[in-house]
UniProtKB/TrEMBL annotation, chain A:
Transmembrane spans: none
InterPro entries tied to this protein: AAA+_ATPase (IPR003593), ABC_transporter-like_ATP-bd (IPR003439), ABC_transporter-like_CS (IPR017871), ABC_transpr_CbiO/EcfA_su (IPR015856), ECF_ABC_transporter_ATP-bd (IPR050095), P-loop_NTPase (IPR027417)
Record field: compositional bias (Basic and acidic residues): 279-288
The protein's name: ATP-binding cassette domain-containing protein
Keywords, comma-separated and alphabetical: ATP-binding, Nucleotide-binding, Transport
Record-linked Gene3D superfamilies: P-loop containing nucleotide triphosphate hydrolases
From TrEMBL, chain B:
Membrane topology reported for the UniProt record: Multi-pass membrane protein
Superkingdom, natural source: Bacteria
Listed name of the protein: Energy-coupling factor transporter transmembrane protein EcfT
PANTHER family in UniProt: COBALT TRANSPORT PROTEIN, PROTEIN ABCI12, CHLOROPLASTIC
Pfam families given in the database record: CbiQ (PF02361)
InterPro entries: ABC/ECF_trnsptr_transmembrane
Major location (coarse): membrane
Keyword Repeat: no
Keyword Transmembrane helix: yes
Annotated organism of origin: Streptomyces cylindrosporus
Length: 548, 360
C-alpha cells in the first residue's frame, strides 16, 4: 500500500540527511507503528507519504515513495488527497472550517464528490466516531479528545485507503486516548484502512499495532518487524515490555493481559513489600516519609481554602481545599478540562479566584507584584515557548538573570547542569521539545522558587527525555522544592509523585498517597500496577530494586 | 442526481437581504415610534427564528453596541457640540471658555430639550441600523453567507473564512503570552509588555498558518480540473471586459453627460462579469455539502424586507414631516399609519421561516 524504496530526505541547509535508506512496505489493511526517540525523523517519514515532504517543506527526497501506486514525486499532496489522509500533531491547526459537520465535509468538497455521497458519508462518519451529538457544535468549543476525533473524521470522509497519524494521543487524557484508539482499531478491522502512525506513548498503542518500524537513531536505517520482535531490540519501550525484559519473558508481552498471565511467579517472588501501602516510601521516599511522620503538622508552603474559580460562566474549580508542603511532589490528574491548568494558574496568580482564598509562601498570588512572586512560585506552562521571548539561548538566560536579579550566569549554569550540550547561539524555537522544556525550567528555577509547578511537562517527550525529567524533578524535590505537576502521563506520576490529587469537573475527588490513589482507578493506574495487582507496585524501577 | 433532503435552514442571503433592507428602512426616518417598531420587528423575528447553536450570541453583543452608540451620542450632545436654538432649557452646565478660533465647538453650557431630542432621534437611527446588522449575524453567520459564493470566488471565500477564524486565535495568543510575562517576573500590563510579546505572537501565528496551509493542501485544497484553452481565454476576456464595463457604466451613471450610455453599459458589464464567473467555476471540481437552497420561502423573506425598505423610502419622499418629526419647535412624534403598517410586513419571516430546531 505504502512503499518506501531506498528513501533519504535532506532538508535545505542541513549537511546530513534527516532520514536515510528508508526501505519498507506497509501492507494494505495493517496498522504500522513508527517508534523511535525524538529527532529521528518520524514526522519526516510520515509527511513523505502524503507528499508534504518534499512538495511543501522543501528539501531533497532521494528514492521513491509510492502510495496506492502513485509516486509522490509526480503527485502533489492535493492530488494524493483521495488516497491518503493525514492528521498532524496539533488538531487545531488542521481545521479549516468552524463547525463539526462542515469540517467533515470539507475534504469531500475539495475532491468534488456528489452531494448525495457526501451526505451519506458524513452521517456514517458521525456514527462511526460517535460525534452525532456534536454535529452542529463549533469546533473551538470541543474538548481535546473530541477535536482529535473530528480531525480523524475529517480525513476519513473521502475514504482514503491510507491514514497517517502523528502522535494522535499525546495531548489526550487516558480515557480520551482509548476512545481515539478504539476508533482506529475499528477502521483497520471493519474498513480495511491502512494506518501508519507515530506515537511516543507506546504503553497506549503498542497492543494495537500489527507491525512496528523502529528508528533507533537519527539517520539510522529503520527496521520493520512484529511488535514483540521489535520491542526486544527497540531503544524505546513501554513499562510492560520493560517488566517483561526484567523478568526474562519470551516472547515479550505487549498487553497488560498477556503480562498478567505470566506474572504469577513474579508476584510470588516479589511478595508484598513489608509495609504494605507504604511500599514506595520504603524504597525511595524514606526521607520525606519520616520527615512528615516526625512533624505532625508539616510546614505549609502553599495552599487553597474553599477556592472556586468561574470563567466565562463555567465553574472551572469548585470549593478546593488543599495544602502543599515543602519537598513533596504532587501529581494533579484528571480528564481534559477537569480544571488542572486552572488550579496551577490560580497558584501563580494568572487567574483570580472568584471566591475562597489561595496563598503561596504567605502571599496572595494575584495581588503580589510579579518580581516578588517569582521568588515564591514558578510555573512552566503547557507550551514552554510561551515563556521564551529572546532570539538565542544565551540572551534568554541573561534576561532570566535580570528578571530574577540573580548573579549573571546563574541561569546558564543551571541549564548546563540540567541538560549539558545546549548551544548558546540556538534560537529557542529550534530546540527539541525536551531541550526547550529544560530551558524553560532553568529560566523558572533561576529565581529559586520553593514551589515549582509544571503543566503537562511530558507532552511530546520521548522515554529518554522523560526519564531525564523524572530524575531532575526527584533531585529538586530532594533539595526541598515542592513540585506540583498536572499530567495525563500515569507512568510519570507513578515514577515521581508522592501524592496524587484527582480532579473531576473542578472538584477534588481523590487526594492521597500516589500508590493508593492510582491503583484504585483503572484509567489512571500505571501498567506495572495493573500487572502486579493486588500488590501495590507502581514502576519497573521499584520491582527491579526489590528483586535485588 | 436525486435530491438531498431539504435543509431546514433558510438561505443565508435571504436573511441578510431582509436584515439589511430593514436597516435601509431605518435610515429613511428619524421617527422614534417607527424606529422602535423596526427594532421590535427584527427582535421578534430573531427571537423566533435564530438557530439554537450555542454559538449564536452576536445579537446581544450588537444590542449592547447599539445602546452604547445611543448613549455616546446623547453624551456628546450634552457635553459638546453646537447647540440648537431651543427654548426649553433643561439645565445649564458650567461652560468652558474656548478661544475664538474654536468657534462652533462648545464644552458645557446650556442644554435644551431640543438638542437632546435631536441627538436621541439621530442616535436611535444609528442604533436601529446596528441592531439590524446584528439580526443578520444572529440569523445567518457571515461564514455561511460566504459559503454561498459562486465556485470561481470559492478560494477567496475560504481565505476570508480562515481569516475570520484566525483573528480570535491571534487575540487569544496575545492574551496568553502577556499573562505568561508574569511568570518571568515582568509586569503583564502596559504597552511595553504588548510590544515584547509581539514577535513571539507573530512567530506563532506564522507557524500556525504554515501548518494550516499544509493541512489544506493535504486535504485537496486547490485541486483543479482541466479546462480547454478556449474556455479559459473566454473566461478571462469576459471577466476583464465585464469589470471594465461595470467601471465605465458606473462612471457614466455618476457623471451628468453619461446618462444615456451609463445604465446599458453597466448592465452589459455585469452580465459579462457574471458569465465569466460562471465559466470560471468550471476550473474547480468542487462540490458543495448541503448547499443552502434559494427557495420560495427565501424569496418571500427577502421580499418582505425589501417591501419595508421600499415603503419607507416612498413615505419619506411623500410625507417627510411624519417620518422626520420636527425638533424645533418641539412636537410629540405621531405614528404615521401606513408606513407603520408597512414595517409590520417585516414580521413575515417569523411565520414562514422554518422553526429554529437544530437539523437532526
Amino acid at each position: 500500500m505504502i512503499r518506501f524504496k531506498d528513501v533519504s530526505v535532506t532538508y535545505a541547509g542541513a549537511t546530513e540527511p534527516t532520514v536515510r535508506n528508508v526501505d519498507f512496505e506497509v501492507p494494505e489493511g495493517e496498522l504500522v507503528l513508527l517508534v523511535g526517540p525524538s529527532g529521528t525523523g518520524k514526522s519526516t517519514i510520515l509527511n513523505a507519504v502524503s507528499g508534504l515532504v518534499p512538495h511543501f517543506t522543501g528539501g531533497t527526497l532521494r528514492g521513491r515513495v509510492t502510495v496506492a501506486g502513485r509516486d509522490t514525486r509526480t503527485h502533489k499532496p492535493r492530488e494524493l488527497a483521495d488516497v491518503v489522509g493525514t492528521v498532524g500533531q496539533d488538531p487545531l491547526s488542521h481545521f479549516v472550517t468552524d463547525t463539526v459537520e462542515d469540517e467533515l465535509a470539507y475534504g469531500m468538497e475539495s475532491l468534488g464528490l456528489p452531494p448525495t455521497v457526501m451526505r451519506r458519508r458524513v452521517e456514517e462518519t458521525l456514527d462511526l466516531l460517535g460525534l452525532t451529538d456534536l454535529r452542529t457544535r463549533p469546533i473551538a468549543t470541543l474538548s481535546g479528545g473530541q477535536q482529535q476525533r473530528v480531525a480523524i473524521g475529517s480525513v476519513l470522509t473521502p475514504h482514503p485507503r491510507a491514514l497517517i497519524l502523528d502522535e494522535p494521543t499525546s495531548a489526550l487524557d487516558p480515557a480520551a486516548a482509548e476512545e481515539v484508539l478504539a476508533v482506529l482499531q475499528r477502521l483497520v478491522h471493519d474498513l480495511g484502512t491502512t494506518i501508519l502512525m507515530a506515537e511516543h506513548r507506546l504503553e497506549r498503542v503498542i497492543q494495537y499495532a500489527d507491525q512496528v518500524a523502529v528508528l533507533p537513531a537519527p539517520g539510522a536505517t529503520p527496521a520493520l518487524g512484529t511488535p514483540a520482535e521489535m520491542m526486544a531490540v527497540s531503544p524505546v519501550y513501554p513499562p510492560v515490555v520493560d517488566l517483561g525484559r526484567l523478568a526474562g519473558w519470551t516472547p515479550l508481552p505487549l498487553t497488560v493481559r498477556d503480562a498478567r498471565r505470566r506474572a504469577a511467579s513474579l508476584r510470588n517472588q516479589l511478595t508484598q513489600p513489608a509495609s504494605a501501602p507504604k511500599g514506595r516510601g520504603e524504597l525511595r521516599d524514606q526521607p520525606h516519609a519520616t520527615r512528615s511522620r516526625q512533624h505532625p503538622a508539616p510546614p505549609e508552603l502553599a495552599g487553597a481554602h474553599s477556592l472556586s474559580v468561574t470563567r466565562a460562566r463555567i465553574q472551572a474549580l469548585r470549593n478546593i481545599t488543599l495544602t502543599i508542603t515543602p519537598g513533596e511532589t504532587v501529581a494533579l490528574m484528571g480528564r481534559n478540562g477537569a480544571g488542572k491548568s486552572t488550579l496551577l494558574n490560580t497558584l501563580v496568580g494568572l487567574t483570580k479566584p472568584s471566591s475562597g482564598e489561595v496563598h503561596v509562601g504567605g502571599a496572595t498570588p494575584h495581588r503580589t507584584p510579579p518580581p516578588a512572586l517569582i521568588r515564591r512560585v514558578g510555573l512552566v506552562p503547557q507550551d514552554p515557548r510561551d515563556l521564551l521571548y529572546a532570539e538565542t539561548v544565551a540572551a534568554e538566560c541573561r534576561a532570566a538573570d535580570q528578571d530574577a536579579q540573580a548573579t549573571p550566569g546563574t541561569c546558564r549554569a543551571l541549564l548546563s547542569d540540567l541538560l549539558p550540550g545546549i548551544p548558546d547561539t540556538t534560537h529557542p524555537r529550534d530546540l527539541s521539545e525536551g531541550q526547550r522544556l529544560t530551558l524553560a525550567l532553568a529560566v523558572v528555577l533561576t529565581a529559586r522558587p520553593p514551589l515549582l509547578l509544571l503543566d503537562e511537562p511530558t507532552r511530546g517527550l520521548d522515554y529518554a527525555a522523560k526519564s531525564r525529567l523524572a530524575t531532575l524533578l526527584r533531585t529538586l524535590a530532594a533539595e526541598g522544592h515542592a513540585i506540583v505537576l498536572a499530567t495525563h502521563d500515569v507512568e510519570l506520576a507513578a515514577e515521581i509523585a508522592h501524592r496524587v490529587i484527582l480532579l473531576a469537573d473542578g472538584e477534588v475527588i481523590a487526594d492521597g498517597p500516589a500508590a493508593d490513589v492510582v491503583t484504585a482507578s483503572p484509567s489512571f493506574a500505571p501498567q506495572v500496577s495493573k500487572i502486579l495487582a493486588p500488590q501495590k507496585w507502581l514502576t519497573v524501577t521499584e520491582v527491579r530494586e526489590a528483586l535485588r | 442526481m436525486s435530491e438531498v433532503p431539504t435543509p431546514t435552514q433558510l438561505h443565508p442571503a435571504a436573511w441578510w437581504l431582509w436584515s439589511l433592507s430593514l436597516g435601509t428602512a431605518a435610515t429613511r426616518t428619524t421617527n422614534p415610534l417607527l424606529l422602535t417598531l423596526l427594532i421590535t420587528t427584527s427582535a421578534y423575528v430573531v427571537a423566533t427564528c435564530r438557530p439554537t447553536t450555542p454559538h449564536s450570541h452576536p445579537y446581544s453583543a450588537f444590542l449592547k453596541l447599539a445602546l452604547t452608540v445611543l448613549l455616546v451620542r446623547l453624551l456628546f450632545a450634552t457635553a459638546f457640540g453646537s447647540p440648537l436654538p431651543g427654548t426649553h432649557t433643561l439645565l445649564t452646565l458650567p461652560e468652558v471658555p474656548l478661544p475664538h478660533w474654536a468657534q462652533g465647538i462648545r464644552i458645557g453650557g446650556r442644554i435644551t430639550a431640543e438638542t437632546l431630542t435631536f441627538a436621541f432621534y439621530d442616535g436611535l437611527k444609528l442604533a436601529t441600523l446596528l441592531i439590524c446588522v446584528g439580526a443578520a449575524n444572529a440569523l445567518a453567520s457571515p461564514t455561511r453567507l460566504l459559503k454561498s459564493l459562486p465556485g470561481a470566488l470559492y478560494e477567496m471565500g475560504v481565505a476570508v473564512v480562515v481569516a475570520l477564524t484566525f483573528a480570535p486565535n491571534l487575540i487569544a495568543d496575545v492574551r496568553r503570552l502577556r499573562a505568561a510575562r508574569r511568570l518571568r517576573g515582568r509586569p503583564d500590563k502596559g504597552l511595553r509588555g504588548l510590544l515584547q510579546v509581539g514577535l513571539p505572537v507573530l512567530e506563532g501565528a506564522l507557524e500556525r498558518s504554515v501548518a494550516l496551509a499544509a493541512a489544506m493542501d493535504a486535504r485537496g485544497y486547490g485541486r483543479t480540473a482541466e479546462v480547454p484553452a478556449p474556455v479559459r481565454r473566454t473566461t478571462t476576456a469576459l471577466t476583464l471586459g465585464g469589470l471594465l464595463g461595470v467601471c465605465a457604466g458606473t462612471y457614466g451613471l455618476l457623471t451628468a453627460e453619461g446618462g444615456a450610455y451609463g445604465l446599458p453599459l453597466l448592465l452589459a458589464g455585469l452580465t459579462a462579469a457574471l458569465t465569466g464567473l460562471r465559466l470560471g467555476g468550471r476550473r474547480t471540481p468542487r462540490t458543495r455539502y448541503r448547499p443552502d437552497r434559494w427557495d420560495a420561502r427565501a424569496c418571500l423573506v427577502a421580499a418582505s424586507g425589501m417591501a419595508v425598505a421600499a415603503a419607507l423610502t416612498l413615505a419619506s419622499a411623500q410625507d417627510p414631516t411624519a417620518l422626520h418629526p420636527g425638533v424645533i419647535p418641539l412636537v410629540a412624534p405621531a405614528l404615521p399609519l401606513w408606513p407603520a403598517a408597512a414595517v409590520l410586513l417585516g414580521l413575515l419571516p417569523a411565520f414562514i421561516a422554518p422553526s429554529p430546531k437544530e437539523p437532526s
